[in-house]
């Protein structure tokens, strides 16, 4: 005897299966398009990073051959370089906050990002704290000391061109940007005339966010790897070592946080242990806020000290200079650790913003 499916069961089952198949087919067909759409929109949102990334990687080489793609240090307004004399600084004299990005970054990290609802410090501070915010873009592939001298010159010109518009001066730097600020402080006080630059006397506060004040463990490990490959001295390892050594001078300076020309010019600059390094102390009369990120919940372990926010160790972020218990009484240093916070997260964290807002 042959089993026969009833007409009612057949008619109710067949469309259900067909609908499921059709829906699955539509999803399968749309996935590549959705993926391409996602990649396109992501690329559009972050396309401004293309040039800064290139400069961070080989910016020193671009500058040496006067390549048009080499970024020139400049203030930025409305997405373009602006000459200091042409800066639009409306209103009465106000506290002026100058932001500096890190390696391979640009000024937009302080202004906007994805998702759109995360706090961005520049616009918020300008709206809620009544300060004026300026943003600097620079070639992060150059030596830190070169950018420090350029920043010192830029701030000198700012005070020269807009003496009545700039009140007290505040500098905020993330990662390498903090080292550039410290280097600028060194050159702002070590002038040819022996007299500190005018902008140094206007400087009230410096905020250092995730700054490798004692160097980057990532660059230290890269240098060690390159040296070991070179010592093996066979064709493949020599090739790899040579390729690794093509990274920019800015990246190499992160190894030990070289802030002064004499450090990287020293013949022992590439020594694995204790290379010569100029001590750059805090500027007198300036309050320093050392903001440290930690991937961990607690700030007491060796992992926190070494890995910190994932890119900068907490020990390096505090640094021997700012963590020295024998700092002179006039030194003004305040340290704050933000738990469960990544290196990039320091740029868009409500607690970090609140700290900035309260201490401006």
Defining key terms:
360 residues; globular; Rossmann fold; alpha/beta; eight-stranded mixed beta sheet; 14% strand
Structure description:
The chain is α/β, with parallel strands linked by helices and about 350 residues long. The protein has a domain at about 70-215 and about 275-360: 3-Layer(aba) Sandwich (Rossmann fold), CATH 3.40.50. Helices cover about 45% and strands about 15% of the residues. The chain is built from 13 helices and eight strands. An eight-stranded mixed β-sheet has the order 2-1-4-3-5-6-7-8, with helices on both faces. The protein is globular.
Number of strands: 8
Question: Looking at the chains present, what oligomeric state does this protein adopt?
Answer: single chain
Please estimate the helix content: 40-55%
Distance between the termini: 90 Å
Shape: globular
Alpha-carbon Rg, integer? 26 Å
Query: Major sheet: size, sense and barrel closure?
Result: 8 strands, mixed
* Broad CATH class of one domain: Alpha Beta
Low-pLDDT parts are 1-13, 38-44
- CATH T-level topology of one domain: Rossmann fold
- Count helical runs: 13
Secondary-structure element order, N to C: HHEEEHEHEHHEHHHHEHHEH
Give average pLDDT, whole number: 88
């Amino acid at each position: 005897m042959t089993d026969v499916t009833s007409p009612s069961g057949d008619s109710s089952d067949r469309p259900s299966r067909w609908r499921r198949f059709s829906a699955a087919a539509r999803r399968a067909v749309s996935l590549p398009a959705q993926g391409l759409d996602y990649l396109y929109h992501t690329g559009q949102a972050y396309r401004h990073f293309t040039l800064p990334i290139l400069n961070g990687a080989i910016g020193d080489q671009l500058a040496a051959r006067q390549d048009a793609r080499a970024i020139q240090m400049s203030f930025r307004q409305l997405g373009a370089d602006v000459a200091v004399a042409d800066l639009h600084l409306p209103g009465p004299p106000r506290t002026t906050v100058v932001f500096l990005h890190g390696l391979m970054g640009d000024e937009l990290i302080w202004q906007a990002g994805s998702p759109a609802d995360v706090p961005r410090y520049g616009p918020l501070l300008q709206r809620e704290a009544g300060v004026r915010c300026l943003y600097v873009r620079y070639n992060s592939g150059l030596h830190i000391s070169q950018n420090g001298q350029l920043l010192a010159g830029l701030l000198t010109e700012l005070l020269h061109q807009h003496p009545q518009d700039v009140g007290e001066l505040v500098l905020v730097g993330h990662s390498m940007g903090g080292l550039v600020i410290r280097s600028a402080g060194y050159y702002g006080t070590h002038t040819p005339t022996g007299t500190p630059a005018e902008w140094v006397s206007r400087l009230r506060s410096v905020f250092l966010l995730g700054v490798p004040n004692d160097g980057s463990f990532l660059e230290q490990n890269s240098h060690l790897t390159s040296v070991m490959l070179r010592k093996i001295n066979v064709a493949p390892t020599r090739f790899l070592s040579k390729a690794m050594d093509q990274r920019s001078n800015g990246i190499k300076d992160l190894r030990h946080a070289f802030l002064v020309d004499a450090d990287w010019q020293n013949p022992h600059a590439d020594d694995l242990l204790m290379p010569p390094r100029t001590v750059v102390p805090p500027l007198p009369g300036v309050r320093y806020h050392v903001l440290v990120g930690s991937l961990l919940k607690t700030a007491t372990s060796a992992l926190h000290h070494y890995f910190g926010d994932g890119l900068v160790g907490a020990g390096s972020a505090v640094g021997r200079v700012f963590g020295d218990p024998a700092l002179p009484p006039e030194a003004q240093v305040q340290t704050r650790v933000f738990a469960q916070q990544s290196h990039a997260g320091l740029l868009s964290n409500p607690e970090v913003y609140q700290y900035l807002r309260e201490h401006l």
